[in-house]
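Good morning,

Both structures are done.
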Amino acid sequence: MNASRPGASREDLMRLLDGEATPEERRAIQRRLDRSSELQREFAIFKGMKAHLRDLSFAPPRMRGSAWDRVRRQITQPLGWALLVSGTVAWLGYGAWVFAKSPTAVVAKLATGAVAIGILMLLAGVVLARVHEYKTDPYKDVHR
């Protein structure tokens, strides 16, 4: 115990609270606690902090979705993806039809087509690599 202070030190109070004090130290600290309302208040604060810390959890909080989250997930997202894909296919089809019917030279059409196909292949490669990385990522379930 702290000899320079007439009451018990914070370390003494924490050892008593954690059950680390010897029986002799426990009796001495308890006598000091009985005589000092200041120490009793500090000990009560430490007890409260210990109870709060015991209740802490490292698990991420469960996210509860609202009704609108379920509507978005079940209706809005699939509908948005369907519209995006169908619109893109229609737009690319129309663009290919206009491109094929244009009076541009065949070499220019082939070069432009090669650039477009190359860009699409690179984009598909990046997307596939990202999907593969997501499936094998050991940290995908770690939450902040």
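Second structure follows.
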Amino acid sequence: MPQEPPPDRQALLARIEAMDPAEIDMLPVGIITLGLDGTILRYNRTEAGYSRRHAAAQIGRNFFREVAPCTEESLFEERFRELALPDGHGTVEFDYTFAFPWGSERVLISFLRAPSAPRIQVVITWPAQP
């Protein structure tokens, strides 16, 4: 269930929302901005490096169906859908293991959504800290 973001996450969300694409690319964490339907609106350079994908080629694709189908029909997507509801906002954080052709990667996923925002910020911390 989404929770009100703690002050540090509220500050992070406000910072991400205000950054231009070049600033987003400089962050040490992966940032994927998703529309409420799961369409990728922004995919930063850090995430592209870790996931070995071309960032610009991900824009406009559905994250759950086309980019990371391992997340479809899982708690990953279920948590996203709950936060994407019309009255959804706050923070959801959880560990997740992505299955790539070159191996598995454990990450920390943070979904962040401001009240009434038409998008959800996905912050991916590589690797997840135990």
